[in-house]
Amino acid sequence: MMGEPSKQSKEAVISYIIQTQEEEMKRISYELHESVGQTLYSFYTGLQFIQSGITDNQLKRFAEEMEQSLERSIKEIQMVSVELHPPTLSTLGIYPALKSYAKQFTATFGIEVEIEEGGKEKKLPEGQNVTLFRVCQEALHNAAKYADTSFIKIIFTWEADCLKIEVKDFGKGFQIDEVQTQSFPGIQAMKERMHLAGGECIISSLVGEGTEVTMVLPLLNP
Questions:
Q1: 103-124: b (≥16 Cβ within 10 Å) or e
Q2: What is the SS3 assignment for 86?
Q3: Are 174 and 211 in contact (CB under 8 A)?
Q4: Which of 54, 87, 153, 175 reaches 20 to 30 Å from 101, CA-CA?
Q5: Which of 42, 98, 41 is nearest to 73 (CA)?
Q6: pTM of the model
Q7: How large a percentage of the chain has pLDDT more than 70?
Q8: Residue 80 scores a pLDDT above 70
Q9: What is the pLDDT of residues 188-201, one digit of tens each?
């Protein structure tokens, strides 16, 4: 009779599933941007050209409405593509990717996001970049859903042996000891992702003062 899987084997399976999902999201993101997005943009520019030659006012208004609809669709596809996998994450790293993502987040939710960085930035493996981005993404989305806030601050602190990222929402907060992770699976997912990456995720909150998500990732010395 086979015994229960070890903790290490369970973590290996979870890590494999996450990696597979990320690779698939990266592929879909690329297809949305390079194929669907570019095709819609070609339609958009073609419609603009056709519109310039229309003299009938009714047809011109119809063409303008179509143009506006295509423009909205292009922006929505760009947003979904970045949500799945921001292109700058692989090329430039977590800090530029998050700064770029924060602009779209503000445009979508109307919540101002300020990002500060201290210390000397270090290059991270793509897997760790993805983990940090996903945890920050989850923290931002949770703030948009539950915090009732208009401002979020993200602080990057690069130290000699670790990277610390703090996401503070300054919202209504909640009682940590009253929250069960079963009711908020996103919290457990954030902690699990950081654990698998070799770091930790600490969540603190005070009613009336807001919630803070802190990620600490040990860095290997070069």
A1: ebbeeebebebebeeeeeeeeb
A2: coil
A3: yes
A4: 175
A5: 41
A6: 0.75
A7: 88
A8: yes
A9: 889 999 998 999 99
